[in-house]
Amino acid sequence: MTGKALLPELWTEILVPVCAVVGIAFSLFQWYIVSGVKLTADRGASSESEDGKNGNEDYLIEEEEGVNDQSVVAKCAEIQTAISEGDENSCATSFLFTEYKYVGVFMVLFAAIIFLFLGSVQGFSTKSQPCTYDKTTTCKPALATAVFSTISFVLGAVTSVLSGFLGMKIATYANARTTLEARRGVGKAFIVAFRSGAVMGFLLAANGLLVLYITINLFKIYYGDDWEGLFESITGYGLGGSSMALFGRVGGGIYTKAADVGADLVGKVERNIPEDDPRNPAVIADNVGDNVGDIAGMGSDLFGSYAESSCAALVVASISSFGINHDFTAMLFPLLISSVGILVCLITTLYATDISEIKAVKEIEPALKNQLIISTVIMTAGIAVVSWIGLPSSFTIFNFGTQKVVKNWELFLCVAVGLWAGLIIGFVTEYYTSNAYSPVQDVADSCRTGAATNVIFGLALGYKSVIIPIFAIAVSIFVSFSFAAMYGVAVAALGMLSTIATGLAIDAYGPISDNAGGIAEMAGMSHRIRERTDALDAAGNTTAAIGKGFAIGSAALVSLALFGAFVSRAGVQTVDVLTPKVVIGLLVGAMLPYWFSAMTMKSVGSAALKMVEEVRRQFNTIPGLMEGTAKPDYATCVKISTDASIKEMIPPGCLVMLTPLIVGFFFGVETLSGVLAGSLVSGVQVAISASNTGGAWDNAKKYIEAGASEHARSLGPKGSEPHKAAVIGDTIGDPLKDTSGPSLNILIKLMAVESLVFAPFFATHGGFLFRIFS
C-alpha cells in the first residue's frame, strides 16, 4: 500500500501557479531594466548605475575617436527598426506573420484530423467505456478524448507560436541596445544581451508551465476521477507545441542560412568586405534571419521539449499509483520540478547580472559556463526537496503491464541523473565547439592547406563529438529505467530541462550578440566596438551549440519515454526486432533523419544559390555600391529568403507529420514501434554531429578573425587564404548547425508524441495492409 505525499494538495495548487507568475514577473522586470538603455541621443542613459561596474570605467570610444555620438545612436535605432519592423515585406515581424498564416492553416487541418481519427475509435459514441488499463472501471467515451485532445493540441500550438514570437520581439528590442552599451565596455554589453536572453527564458518556462497547469485543472472539471482519460487527452499539448516548433525551426533555419551563405560567399570571399558591411545587399536578411531562426525557432523547439516530457511523465503517472489513488500532489511531480526550476534559475540569473562582474573579454565564456554549473548544483538540492515533500515514501509505477514498487529517493536519482547528463553534454559540446580548446584550433590550423582539409577536419570533429553525449544519454536511460521504468526516463528528460530558463537565456544571448555586431558594422562604429561585439558573438556561438546539445539530449530521453507510453497505450506486448514487421520499421525509421536532412540542406542550398546570384547582380549592376555611395536593394534579398523558407518548410514538415499516420494505419503499431526506435537511434547521432561540426567551423573562422594568439595571427588576417578557406567551411556548416541539426531533435520527439496521441486509433484500426493480406 502506498502513502500520500507530505505536501498538501492545496499547497501544490498554490505553489505551481505562484512559481509561474514569479517567473513572468521576473522576466518583465529584466525587460524593464533593458529598456533603460535609450535609443536616443542621450548618451548618459544606461541600464546600470554609474559605479564602474561591469566595464563602466571605459570612456566612450566615440569621444576618443571623434565620431559624432548622436548620429551613431540614431543610425543604430534606424537599423534596429529595419530588422524588427522594417517595411511590410522586409523584417522579422512580417516574416513570422507570413509563416504563422501558413502554419495556422495546418493547425486547423491537423486539429480536424485528431478529432476525426480519435472520435472514430468508438464510432463517435457518447457512451462511457471500460478503461484501457483497468477493465473493471468505466472511463469517459473516446469522443471526449477526441474533443479534449484537439483542444490541448490547439493550446500547445498557440503557446509554442507565442513563445517564438515573444522571443523574437525581445531579441530585436535588445540588439541595438547591446551595441550601444558596447561603447561603455564589454561587461555592459554582456549584461544587456544576457538580461534580454533571460526575459525570453523565463517567459517561455513560466508560460509553458502555467498554460499546462490551467489546462489540467479545467479538463479535471469534466473528467472528474477519470485521470487515465484526462492525462491521455493532455498529450495533445505536447503534440501542438512540437508541430509548431518543427515549422518554426525549418522555416526560420532556411531563411537565416540562405541569407547568411549568400552574404558570406559573395561579400567576404569574392568582394573581400567585412561581415555585416552595409554595402552587402543580403546583410538585413542575414540579421533578420538570426531572429526568426535562432530565436523564434529555438524558443518553440525548447517549449515543445518541455511540454512533451511533462506529458510523457503525466501519462505514465496516471496509470500508476499516483493516478489510481488520486494523489494530486504526486501526480503533479513533473510540474513541481519545473516550478522549482524557475526559482533556481532566478537565483542563478541574479548571480550573472548583479553579483559577478565581467571586466575582460576572456571572462565572458566562463561567466556563461558558470550559469550552467550553478543552476545544476542548486537544482540538485531543489529536486531532493521536491522528491521528499512531493512524493510518497513508496509508490508503484506502471511498467508494461505490471506495477513496479519505487522509493522516492530512487525517483530523485532519476531526475538528478538527467540533470547532470545535460551538464556533461553541455561541457562536451563546449569543448568541441569553442575556439579556446584544441579541437577547433586544429580545424582552424587545417585551413592552411585550403577548404578541403578544413571540411575533412570539421566532419571528423563532428563525428567524434557524438561519443561522450551518447554515453551520457545511455547511462541516464539505464539508471532511470532501472529505478522507475519509463516514468524514470520521462522525469530524467524533465531533469535535463528543469533549468530551461537559464539554458534559454544563454542560448538567446548568442543571436542577440550576433545582431549587435552586425548593427555596429552597419552603423560605422569603431573597430574596437566591433571587436567587443565579436567577442560576445564568439561566446554566443559556443552557448548556442550547448543549447542545441541540451535540446538533442533531452529529445532523446523524451522520445524514449513517449515511445514507452505509446507501446503501453497501443497494447504492444513486446517490440521484437527479430520479427519482419519491426525490422522493416527500424530500417525505415533510421533512414528518415537522412531524408529529412537532405530536404532541409537542399532547400538552404537552392535558396542560397538564388541569394548569391542576386548579391552578385547588385554588385555588378549598381554603380557606386562598392564605393559606398549607392544603397543596395535589401528588400529583394529579404524576399528571396522569405519565399524560399515558406515554400520549402512544407515538404519536410509533411514528411514528419504524415509518417506516423501512414505507417500506423497501413502497417500497424508493431511496424510503427520499429520506425520510432530507428528514427531515435539514428536521429540523435546525426543531430549531434551536424550541430557540432557547424559550430566548430564557425568558431574556427572567428578564431582566425580575432587573431588573439600567435597561432591565430599566423593564419590571418581577414582576407588571407586560410581565412577564405575558413569562411567556406563556415558556410557549409551553417545549414548543418542551424537548419538540419536542430530540426532533427524535433523529428524524433514529434513522431513519438504524435504516435502516442493517435495510439487509440492505431490500436483499433491499424495494420490495414497486413489485415488484407493475412
UniProtKB/TrEMBL annotation:
Pfam families: H_PPase
Membrane found in the keyword field: yes
Primary location: membrane
Assigned EC number: 7.1.3.1
Compartmental location: Endomembrane system
Matches recorded under InterPro entries: PPase-energised_H-pump
TM annotation in the entry: 14-34, 102-122, 142-168, 189-216, 331-352, 372-391, 411-432, 466-494, 550-572, 578-596, 649-669, 746-770
HAMAP family reported in the protein's UniProt record: PPase_energized_pump (MF_01129)
Protein name in the entry: H(+)-exporting diphosphatase
